[in-house]
Amino acid sequence: MANTLMPKRLELLSDLIPQILLVALLANPNDSASEPIIRDMRDAARTKGLQLHILEAGTEREIDAAFAVLVQLHAPGLVVGADAVFDSFREPLLALAARDTVPAIYFAREFVAAGGLISYGASFTGTWRQVGVYAEKVLKGTKPVDLPVEQPTKFGLVINLKTAKALGLTVPPSILARADEVIE
Predict the structure, then answer these.
(1) What is the SS3 assignment for 108?
(2) CA-based end-to-end distance of the chain
(3) Would you list the domain boundaries of the chain?
(4) CATH code assigned to 2-183
(5) Would you say residue 26 has pLDDT above 70?
(6) Which of 26, 96, 159, 176 is the most exposed place for a label (fewest CB within 10 A)?
(7) What is the C-alpha separation between 52 and 174, in angstroms, rounded?
(8) What DSSP designation does 49 have?
(9) 70 CB contacts (<8 Å, ≥6 apart)?
């Protein structure tokens, strides 16, 4: 699912910052899914006429180093890869993005609720609810092998207007109209 949503995140970031020409992608090199995500993101960037710079990080120290490179590049936007490592370093990521005034799009609402700019991704609440439904079925005797594999069906676009203002961004009405949640 991460592969299919990453180009959409790039599109949303470029819609939010229409003058953007260079975008960075923060990816975890230790995740086997990174390679296809990077390939898909390169294709999406090329299609939109954007230059994409890959920043690799799998630890907090590497995230700090990636942001140092991001600042040197003067990249006006960052797409944070959907990876559990980045979720576990949510606060440092948000602090670095705020410190360096980097507009970033994240994979989960929780980033935006904690001060991030924008997110687009599956609803964690909906996903965990489905896990509970499956657990109940297994506890009632259904064999796990008999349960179908399901993908998330609910996705949310969340925008933090306070963060946008702090970054000097005006959120276009077209993005506000598509937002599932606007944090003010």
Answers:
(1) coil
(2) 29
(3) 2-183
(4) 3.40.50.2300
(5) yes
(6) 176
(7) 24
(8) T
(9) 24, 55, 78, 100, 102
